[in-house]
């Protein structure tokens, strides 16, 4: 900390007279001695602990480790709760509340006497919401992820969240009975932590590490491993120095960091949700990033992490194999080596000494597990502003495919008809699900990987082309086109597709088209009846009125950018 630079918290605790009295006095009721307020960096521990977010339920314990590090470095830790988004319990989808949680985080950080922040993130949306909110304030900030669960074990087999989609089909075809399901549930989620595969939570943990926002190794240490606590303590220790060095989020989050993160996400077979969250984060910190930028960056990056759903293993195996630094080192020639990270070293300095301990789990560029890219961005008259597919989790034989559309107008229509014997569908059909986008659902749920119609499942069909304006769980897989933008509810061409239209997916050409002319599409759109408003009050109304489309990150228009950390007025 430069001698002449005052701590931000001194604006509260260093004040004379009535204001300083009020700011200090009420903190003292917690038994805090006078010297804690004198020239000590105050570190906020932004905690998404909640028993309704099972993936983050161990965070009070983790916060204690962070505090030890902060105290050790001569800072003063203060833990505060923010809205926590549990992926599994929240209806209609945790994504509806990502932007709300980010507002909570932003305002909580700015309004309080904090000099630096530690973000405790775990379950899917808790990472982007916290990073987005923190970016709009831009204090020295470090991320500590909660870590993945231990690998599930059932009847001698390793299992994880991606198996849910397989079990779903097995339940529908009668292969699995209810009693067995209860045993599987317990076996799958047998420890603290977030989903144990490369779903969205793990992809987000890898994202923060490759952006340079966490200490090296953060992504893969299991929640139950004592080294997770060590990392938390070291992060607490480090953030105090970041305050002294005035190393802010904007010093780390440069365009190069974003490009590194995109390449890494492709190499790990990361979640498609990564695209939306990264776009939103870029929007907050002011780095220009477009959906189409992702494709050339991801295109020549093969799969280096053999982790489900794109591969075979689990996050625990990735940790034992050396963790994300091994992947970063393997990608060395493709990365911006000089990108700065929170520990004050460049990303290359951090991965230099990484060693791979299991090449069946983490590969090198010359011997990848799959040369198919982890992400492709599609354009065409089905999705004027783009759509997303994860080729590494899709079927090779469907990468170029034309089929007749079988259209479901919304999720209820889909649920009512998908298993009906009357549904006219075969394995060459293209399933189309509308009105599951940001505004349409609202909240853009993870329903894009629609189940295969029962009558095709019975024939042994396990994959077909599916297209929607919604998202897919990071644990999902299949030939699934997502985030079609603009969404049906925003009047995109997607709203005009009807059953029987011929839809062509051509991944090598990055195109998604329907055999309709612009005139035909315009004509059909003119005849569409607008849907009923789905919210008349409260946050959801605000959300629907202001949420941007998926290709822009689905943030709210008025939340783009930041307002910095200054607050000029006092409270009394
Ligand atoms: Fe929380 Fe999967 S449900 S990470
Ligand atoms: Mg998810």
Automatic annotation (TrEMBL):
Protein name: Dihydroxy-acid dehydratase
Organism lineage string: Bacteria, Pseudomonadati, Bacteroidota, Sphingobacteriia, Sphingobacteriales
PANTHER family to which the protein is assigned, alphabetical: HYPOTHETICAL DIHYDROXY-ACID DEHYDRATASE (EUROFUNG)-RELATED, HYPOTHETICAL DIHYDROXYACID DEHYDRATASE (EUROFUNG)-RELATED
A Pfam family that the UniProt record links to this protein: ILV_EDD_C
Segments forming domain Dihydroxy-acid/6-phosphogluconate dehydratase N-terminal: 40-350
Family according to the record: Belongs to the IlvD/Edd family.
InterPro entries: Dihydro-acid_dehy_C, ILV_EDD_C, ILV_EDD_N, IlvD/EDD_N, Sugar_Degrad_Dehydratases
Sequence ranges assigned to domain Dihydroxy-acid/6-phosphogluconate dehydratase C-terminal in this UniProt record: 360-554
């Amino acid at each position: 900390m430069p001698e002449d630079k005052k701590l931000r918290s001194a604006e509260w605790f260093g004040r004379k007279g009535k204001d300083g009295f009020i700011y200090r006095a009420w903190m003292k009721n917690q038994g805090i001695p006078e010297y804690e307020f004198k020239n000590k960096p105050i570190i906020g521990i932004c905690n998404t602990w909640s028993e309704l977010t099972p993936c983050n339920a161990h965070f009070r314990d983790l916060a204690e480790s962070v505090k030890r590090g902060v105290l050790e470095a001569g800072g003063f830790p203060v833990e505060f709760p923010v809205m926590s988004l549990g992926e599994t319990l929240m209806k209609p989808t945790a994504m509806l509340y990502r932007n709300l949680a980010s507002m909570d985080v932003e305002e909580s950080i700015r309004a309080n006497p904090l000099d630096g922040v530690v973000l405790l993130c775990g379950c899917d949306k808790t990472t982007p919401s916290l990073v987005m909110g923190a970016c709009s304030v831009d204090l020295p900030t470090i991320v500590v992820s909660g870590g993945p669960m231990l690998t599930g074990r059932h009847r001698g087999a390793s299992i994880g969240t991606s198996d849910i989609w397989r079990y779903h089909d097995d339940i529908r075809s009668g292969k699995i009975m209810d009693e067995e399901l209860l045993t599987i549930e317990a076996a799958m989620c047998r420890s603290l932590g977030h989903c144990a595969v490369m779903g969205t939570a793990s992809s987000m943990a890898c994202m923060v590490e490759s952006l340079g926002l966490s200490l090296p190794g953060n992504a893969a240490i299991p929640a139950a491993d004592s080294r997770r606590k060590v990392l938390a303590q070291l992060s607490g220790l480090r953030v105090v120095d970041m305050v002294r060095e005035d190393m802010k989020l904007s010093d780390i989050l440069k365009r190069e960091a974003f490009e590194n993160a995109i390449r890494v996400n492709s190499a790990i077979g990361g979640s498609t949700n990564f695209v939306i969250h990264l776009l939103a984060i870029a929007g907050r910190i002011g780095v220009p990033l477009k959906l189409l930028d992702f494709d050339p960056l991801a295109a020549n990056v093969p799969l280096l992490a053999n982790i489900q759903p794109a591969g075979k293993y689990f996050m625990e195996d990735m940790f034992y194999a050396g963790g994300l630094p091994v992947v970063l080192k393997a990608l060395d020639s493709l990365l911006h080596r000089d990108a700065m990270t929170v520990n004050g070293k460049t990303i290359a300095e951090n991965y230099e000494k990484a060693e791979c301990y299991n090449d069946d789990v983490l590969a090198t560029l010359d011997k990848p597990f799959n040369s198919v890219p982890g992400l492709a961005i599609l354009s065409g008259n089905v999705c004027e502003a783009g759509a997303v597919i994860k080729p590494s989790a899709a079927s090779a034989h469907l990468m170029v495919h034309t089929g007749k559309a079988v259209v479901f107008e919304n999720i209820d229509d889909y649920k009512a008809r998908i298993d009906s014997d009357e549904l006219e569908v075969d394995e060459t059909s293209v399933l189309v699900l509308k009105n599951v986008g940001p505004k349409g659902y609202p909240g853009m749920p993870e329903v894009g990987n629609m189940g295969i119609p029962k009558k095709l499942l019975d024939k042994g069909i396990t994959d077909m082309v599916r297209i929607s304006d919604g998202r897919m769980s990071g644990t999902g897989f299949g030939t699934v086109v997502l985030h079609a933008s603009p969404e049906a509810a925003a009047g995109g061409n997607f709203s005009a597709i009807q059953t029987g239209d011929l839809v062509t997916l051509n991944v090598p050409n990055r195109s998604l088209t329907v055999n309709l002319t612009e005139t035909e599409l315009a004509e059909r759109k003119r005849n569409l009846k607008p849907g009923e408003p789905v919210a008349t009050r409260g946050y959801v109304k605000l959300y629907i009125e202001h949420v941007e489309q998926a290709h822009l990150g689905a943030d709210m228009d008025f939340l783009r950018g930041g307002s910095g950390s200054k607050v000029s007025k006092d409270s009394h």
